[in-house]
Amino acid sequence: MVQEARKLLPDAKGRLVTAFLHNFFERYVEYDFTAALEEKLDLISAGQLAWKDVLREFWQNFSAQVDGTKELRVTNVLDALNVELGPLVFPPKEDGTEPRACPRCGNGQLSLKLGKFGAFVGCSNYPDCGYTRHQLGTTCRAMARPRTRARRISASIRRPASPVTLRTGRFGPYVQRGEGKEAKRSSLPKGWQASEMDLDKALRLLSLPREVGLHPESGKPILAGLGRYGPFLNHDGMYANLETIEDVFEVGLNRASPSLRRRRKRAAADAALPRRWRPSASIPNMVARSPFGTAASDPM
Q1: pLDDT of 38-61, one tens digit each?
Q2: In whole angstroms, what is the distance from residue 70 CA to residue 33 CA?
Q3: At what angle do helices 51-67 and 31-45 cross, to 10 degrees?
């Protein structure tokens, strides 16, 4: 945060971190999460709730959330940030041309990128086109979050007592059924255009997550759904990625069970990696898998 004209405004780094949390750890930045946690802390202080139970519940949920992001690639994160920060990083041009068109090569698309010195804007045609813009290093009033989180972009398509609308918010276009706290929402998956949405597609999205069937070993349901980072399978807290949104609606037990089994074996292999200790101090060096192989991480 920086102070400007006696007002506190978020700087570029703060905006990026906030956008990341809203996309991949939204539960932990919601107002009701903090309020609910404070109520539990009050109960702990009054001796009406065991602190270990609260800590265990928090860690189980948080650990599952982290596990769901382990297979994310940098491109997945940047795609999500491009959508949320698009109106701020790529504001509309006065001449009406595409705001993300590269001004140097003309046929490339501008995107957020990560470099040695932080985030910047670069061209998708790199290395053929070396255009970069470090505009994110400047804090300005334009980077403040707009007050209106969503606006209606199409008329309601009504069914009896159930309005379904197409809207746009800070995460991009989404569909919504109903109003207020009881409303159900679903973002449009990658590749789906707002201009091509109809009632059938909207209702399919709003019906998620879909129960694929019962797991043949545990007897618990397998769910297929759409999350912040794409289509997924979920069984008893274990997540596995799906390739396309069509898989969410079409995948059956014959495909879902092997995918979850492979994911579980990989998680078990990660957990079995050795914990190595420094000879001179009781600080663990963890050995973990990365997209480039097995690597050691030093907490210092």
Answers
A1: 888 989 998 999 999 999 988 888
A2: 23
A3: 150
Q: What phi-psi label fits residue 86: left (phi over 0), alpha (psi between -120 and 50 degrees) or beta?
A: alpha
Distances (CA, A) of 122 to 103, 133, 136: 11, 6, 12
Per the CB < 8 A criterion, the answer to whether 286 and 272 are in contact is no
**CA 241/CA 243 separation, integer angstroms:** 7
Judge whether 167 and 176 are in contact, CB under 8 Å.
Answer: yes
Which portions of the chain are predicted below pLDDT 70? 1-5, 10-12, 116-118, 134-162, 270-300
Which residue in this structure is represented by tokens 């001449």? 95
Q: State the pTM of this model.
A: 0.41
Q: What is the pLDDT of residues 115-170, one digit of tens each?
A: 766 678 888 888 888 888 765 544 444 434 433 344 343 444 444 356 888 888 77
Cα 69 to chain center, whole Å? 8
% of the chain beyond a pLDDT of 70? 76
Q: Residue 124: which of 145, 101, 143 has the closest Cα?
A: 101
Rounded CA-CA distance 140/131 in Å is 23
What is the 8-class DSSP label of residue 212? E
- Give one DSSP letter per residue of 80-107, joined into a string: HHHHHHHHHHSPPPTT---TTB-TTTSS
Please identify which residue in the block is written with the tokens 């698009």.
Answer: 86
State how far the alpha carbon of 62 is from the alpha carbons of 24, 66, 205, 256, in Å.
11, 6, 26, 24
